[in-house]
């Protein structure tokens, strides 16, 4: 007769899985930081804003002092494409801010 057995994941395996997940996130964060630095040197944050129709996007690349870095339209487009490709789980339809130092994406309310 079959007896049911627990299929618990041992704590050591769970810890290893968490460490692998953290390592992947750290690697992704450093890749994004390095590529944003290549696109527009001095970028500390990338802010995206949606247009009225929800399709048009404005991207502001800000430095550590929260002032825009000198970047042209092509650099802004490249930074937005980079974030969309490397962070596909993020809903980019609204206003968002990506912080390069922490690797976090937060909702942003546009200033009037």
Question: Would you give an account of this structure?
Answer:
The structure is a single chain. The chain has 112 residues and is α+β, with helices and mostly antiparallel strands. It has one domain (11-107). Helix content is 38%, strand content 18%. It is built from two helices and four strands; from the N terminus they run H-E-E-H-E-E. The chain has helices at residues 11-39, 73-86, and strands spanning 45-50, 57-62, 96-99, 104-107. It has a four-stranded antiparallel beta sheet, with helices on one face. Helix 1 packs antiparallel against helix 2 (73-86). It is elongated and about 65 Å long. The chain starts with 10 loop residues before the first helix and ends in a 5-residue tail after the last strand.
């Amino acid at each position: 007769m079959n007896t049911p057995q627990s299929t618990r994941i041992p704590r050591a395996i769970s810890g290893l899985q968490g460490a692998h997940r953290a390592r992947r996130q750290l690697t992704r964060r450093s890749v994004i930081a390095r590529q944003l630095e290549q696109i527009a040197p001095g970028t500390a944050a990338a802010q995206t804003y949606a247009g009225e129709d929800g399709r048009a996007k404005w991207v502001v690349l800000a430095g550590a002092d929260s002032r825009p870095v000198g970047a042209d339209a092509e650099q802004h487009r490249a930074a937005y494409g980079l974030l969309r490709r490397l962070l596909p789980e993020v809903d980019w339809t609204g206003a968002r801010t990506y912080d390069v130092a922490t690797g976090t994406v937060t909702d942003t309310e546009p200033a009037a």
